[in-house]
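To the wet lab folks,

You asked to see what we're planning to order before we commit. Fair enough. Below is the target structure as tokens, and below that is the sequence we designed to fit it. If anything looks off to you, flag it before the synthesis order goes out.
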């Protein structure tokens, strides 16, 4: 599906991947016309290493003056690709876990006008994911559900997968300086894309784990992730249901939350009161607390159904020429 008229660039964040990056570059196919190796203030000086040992004319080494994290490195590559007039930019890691042979699979939905952004999903092949560590499986399931809530892309999975592709016309509309620069980067990208109503498509891929050492410690980021998911969820709901549009869901959410909260507080107060007095709670009081909870949950489920149905389906490129 890819054609010569599409200028394809690959962005490779480079931090402690000196032992693998030359092989990654070597395996990138001829459909790519530019390769941005972004040295994210790497202590191994991977940028200088690539300059010295790689003679591929497509390679451009970019240097960050300080370590900005994977998100900051990708933004540096995106800005370079936009400046050079690239059409599509693919992001892969430099540690060899992402097969460059899959690049056409990530590009094709964008070229065909079916997507604005594509990302990898390691959970399509049930046989392959048996090799994935159980901790990663559980963690990814939890992160995926949180990301569905905060981003609004209910049909996506594997949110931390960093194998992605984006059309430059969409990248230009993103608030690049505001996107999270470190481990929350991939998830924050989805939230920002949803605010643009961009279409995002999962691309099946196998999971590969090499000898890399991850710097991610779950205990150190769980609080940060929860806070950022809550922030993005609140912003998305405000943008989509109150600022830019109004729908039945705009009423269902606050009414549902209010009724559940009222029923829980009212019922809890009278339950404690009955314990203190040693008396039974009147049936009318029980109903007055139970009914708002039941109706409130129904309203929240209705909101959830409408939110799921409102996943963006029309690519931005079909109605935007800028």
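Sequence we intend to order:
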């Amino acid at each position: 599906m890819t054609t010569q008229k599409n200028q394809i660039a690959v962005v490779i964040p480079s931090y402690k991947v000196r032992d693998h990056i030359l092989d990654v570059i070597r395996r990138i196919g001829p459909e790519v016309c530019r390769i941005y190796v972004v040295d994210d203030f790497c202590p191994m000086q991977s940028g200088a290493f690539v300059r010295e040992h790689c003679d591929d004319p497509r390679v451009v080494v970019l240097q960050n003056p300080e370590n900005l994290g994977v998100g900051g490195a990708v933004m540096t590559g995106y800005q370079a690709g936009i400046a050079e007039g690239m059409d599509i930019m693919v992001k892969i890691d430099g540690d060899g876990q992402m097969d460059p042979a899959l690049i056409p699979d990530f590009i094709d939905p964008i070229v065909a006008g079916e997507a604005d952004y594509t990302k990898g999903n390691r959970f399509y092949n049930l046989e392959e994911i048996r090799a994935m560590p159980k901790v990663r499986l559980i963690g990814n399931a939890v992160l995926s559900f949180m990301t569905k809530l905060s981003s609004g892309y209910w049909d996506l999975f594997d949110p931390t997968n960093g194998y992605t592709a984006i059309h430059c016309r969409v990248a230009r509309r993103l608030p690049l300086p505001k996107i999270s620069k470190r481990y929350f980067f991939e998830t924050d990208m989805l939230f920002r894309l949803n605010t643009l109503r961009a279409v995002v498509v999962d691309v099946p891929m196998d999971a590969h784990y090499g000898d890399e050492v991850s710097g991610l410690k779950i205990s150190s980021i769980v609080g940060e992730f929860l806070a950022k998911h809550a922030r993005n969820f609140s912003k998305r709901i405000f943008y989509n249901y109150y600022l830019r549009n109004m729908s039945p869901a705009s009423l269902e959410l606050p009414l549902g939350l209010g009724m559940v909260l009222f029923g829980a507080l009212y019922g809890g107060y009278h339950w404690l009161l009955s314990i203190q007095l040693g008396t039974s709670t009147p049936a009318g009081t029980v109903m007055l607390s139970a009914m708002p909870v039941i109706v409130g949950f129904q309203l929240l489920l209705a909101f959830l159904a409408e939110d799921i149905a409102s996943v963006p389906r029309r690519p931005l490129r079909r109605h935007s020429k800028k």
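Structural context that might help your review: Residues 89 and 304 are 33 Å apart (CA to CA). Strands lie at 8-14, 34-39, 59-63, 88-91, 117-121, 164-167, 200-204.

Thanks,
Computational group
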